[in-house]
Amino acid sequence: MPRPRFASPQTQAALTALVEDPAGWHHGYALSRTTGLASGTLYPILRRLLEAGLVEARWATDDEGTGPRRHLYRLTAEGRAVAVARAAPVSPWAPPRPAQARP
Amino acid sequence: MSVTQRALTWSAARLAGSSGELVRGLVAELSVVPEGVERRRWLRGGLWLVVREAGRMVARAAGHPAALVVGAVVVGLDGLGTSDDASQVTLAALLVGCALLGAARPAAAVPSAVAVGSAVAISQLAQLFAAAALGHGIAPVAGSTGVMSAVGLFVLVLPALLAARLGVAARRRCAGRTPAA
Question: What domains can you pick out in chain A, each with its CATH number?
Fold first, then answer.
């Protein structure tokens, strides 16, 4: 049986991170931090999502006050639908959360 | 700026289309990636991304019908030629073919040249491994039919790149001479 597209845990982690703020624009480094994915894994995923029309990208304009111009990514309407349908509740690639201090 | 960062910035400027855009986006993030282990990981990932994207471009260029024809002609001449001049004829076909590919599709000149230049080496390696799989043995040392000899044929990428660049230059020169309509 063929594997459904965008079903890998890494892609699901990226979709989950993007859908947390579905209308907002996300930076690559912030996505990498949220998902725990290395840049060499995250960016090919973003390219596939861009090619499939699930994500759109743009360069931050100078008046957005983000310092040097950075590339931003956001889910499209189709991407939001796919992300909501496929998003994993907890990403297995996310960095471990700091342990709670015991009383 | 580290050597890795320089290499990444240099590659990002040379990769075309969406691949280049993606790598430039990764490089732009360096303004916020903290120094140290984190930054080194980010740069390593960037280099891996460049290798992947360059591979995709070469694979896409190799799949173009014109590149397939040139590659097939070069491999065919290399395999069928029996005269003393067979190698020179193969090299001439490679040079002319890559120059034509460069002139026809300047944006894909480099990946096309890499694809065509690698064709003979890949074909010989495939034959060697097929022979080994069929139980005919394989010569792992340098020699006329050995793996090292086949790997050495990747050097043909260099003249292929040069020819493609000349093709691109020739096209630009011709375009510059064309009178405006």
Answer: 9-86 (1.10.10.10)
